# Entry
Amino acid sequence: MNYFPDEVIEHVFDFVTSHKDRNSISLVCKSWFKIERYSRQNVFIGNCYSISPERLLRRFPCFKSLTLKGKPHFADFNLVPHGWGGFVQPWIEALARSRVGLEELRLKRMVVTDEGLELLSRSFVNFKSLVLVSCEGFSTDGLASIASNCRHLRDLDLQENEIDDHRGQWLSCFPETYTSLVTLNFACLEGETNLVALERLVARSPNLRSLKLNRAVPLDALARLMACAPQIVDLGVGSYEDEQDSESCLKLQAAIRKYTSLRSLSGFLEAAPHCLSAFHPVCHNLTSLNLSYAAEIHGSHLIKLIEHCKKLQRLWILDSIGDKGLEVVASTCKELQELRVFPTDLHGGGNTAVTEDGLVAISAGCPKLHSILYFCQQMTNAALITVARNCPNFIRFRLCILEPHKPDHVTSQPLDEGFGAIVQACKNLKRLSVSGLLTDQVFLYIGMFATQLEMLSIAFAGDTDKGMLYVLNGCKKMRKLEIRDSPFGDAALLADVNKYETMRSLWMSSCEVTLGGCKRLARKAPWLNVEIINENDNNRMEENGYEGRQKVDKLYLYRTVVGTRVDAPPFVWIL
Amino acid sequence: MEGGSASTLSNDDNLVVSSEDSSSPTENGLELRLTLSLGRKGFRDCRASQANDDSSSSSSSPSSLSSRASVTAGIKRTADSMAPTSGQVVGWPPIRTYRMNSMVNQAKTLAMEDPQQVNRNTNDATKMGSSMFVKVTMDGIPIGRKIDLNAHKCYESLSNALEDMFLKPNTVPSTQETDGRLETRLKILPDGSSGLVLTYEDKEGDWMLVGDVPWRMFIGSVKRLRIMKTSEATGAAKMNL
# Structure
């Protein structure tokens, strides 16, 4: 390869798109490092505090797309207090000052502001794509800046963000000359939507492929929108309430018949179930169906819909589908790859919930299944062992038994053997979440068999430090480990400090680690940021004199090349 | 100390690898499981008594339960500390806040349609993953916040939390208006001393003063909160009359 001119090598590198592969390429030799550096188009930063924007720009001066993740995963469940961090502002400012021709920004769990969005919209002439997932801190005013200023915008994709809806006119801020929209997802906006502006925008967007509406778009508006955009591939229906408006229903049915390109359907935030049949004509082409917010769709209406969806690859559903419904899925959806079953009744006692039988049925009927997230009230080892036998191809296996510490409901045993069977059979398992009653034994199995495991979520499990040690010693590819309410302490934390250099982050909350242990860790590993998050008065930890032995409420540590961050709030103590 | 546990680990490894029947517990394992089942039974007994007693003032918290049940920080500190159930633990079940709020809002919508459901759904909202987030805005601050009403059992607690949220120096963006108010308590009933009053929008869309009705009734009908200046509140009240 050394005999080729750089341009040729660069051309070859263009075919290498995965971040891991490009990182490997850059390690081969100095010349490849240099070529790769200047040609890297997409940069992925899994922890925004692991590196600074300045260092990023020095290494990759020519990138076009940046993906940044901020808060740790458990922030999704309110375990990280407001104001912890993950601010995108310094990144946008640094990029704006530089000469990077940013085209795409993808953020997850970060704090975004209206000022930041405005700066973004004004700084990058070719900006094309904004994807925000689980972010917060901004309002529709920020969206208005994006709409007004980004002449070449293609994607505006807002997924499950906390957006302050000022009920303004952000949709009408897209200029009349603007016609390049490809993706528009504003399902998470709570307020009213300017329907006229929306219809005009959709009507002048011939390239629109993905449209996800919020609940303020009623049935008649939906019918009109669909009529002028039959090329849509991915549709998120907002409110689907049929207020006895048969004319709209007819218009909708007519529009749907033209939807030959539709592959993905979601939404139905408020739905009159009997209208679902309007979508039956397009179900046979669907590869993705997300009804996980459609609480009012269940029973026979749901089953009838699913029976038409023979090509489904991805299904997100509520547990109101029941085991019987899952059996229908198992016999109908032979192409199914990913299934998520969310709970509707969180305090137990629901008789429409799914059980281990549903999970077994799916595993038996869907040979291509590789990703599952399953919330249920009960589980057995026998079922998990059967699932493991049926489906050795799991890449992601997340099981959440709603009641902490719940054992096998038939034998009253811990679920160690069940999860053990899963990790033993699924040689490609990359992500695992465990639940129910679990002893150190399950972690022994995980350490022994889950050789490819990259992310592990543990809650209310284990007995002693040995559990955590099995995992740290055994799982060589571990990147993210998150633990809550489990009896792991300093001995496990400190056993192998260098392990954390191979991982992105470790989260431990309500465990047995002490302040003294964390301090020792911080001393041994200066290349880690060891954060203690203490919502109660932080200073009390020092004052009472037993500080060495005081238990730490929340510990979050991560490797970084830029040392202690400067934007930490008072309740975060970086050791 | 760390060395000791490491060598124990390797012993266990050898045990597992060399034993013929991987499912037969070692003596230690058996002991462990016995202890566990005793612990578990105690936990279940506690929960059984919990389920029978609906009132939140039950304080049958067996501190003799196994250490797992006493994991403290994960459990929400209420005045009566109860053993953990899935309805009481912070951040459990692991469902995104966005989805959780969506579920609670849907329950409320159903409640609006059927008045008899109100009480049942209020209970549901209280137990639903222990979260019931509503928006709070304060006049003069552009970005709103959200507060979990289920984290509180009375108006005073709510008032204190809102004060922390909006009036503490390091959480509020610098505006002139807040500088002089660091010491003021947010009065629920308007007595004019703080210049601020707490109001809420109920499920019928009316704006009401917080504090007039019993807490449970408030929880069942509140949609969002707003901290207003007293002068504006009086003006609005006059208009309603």
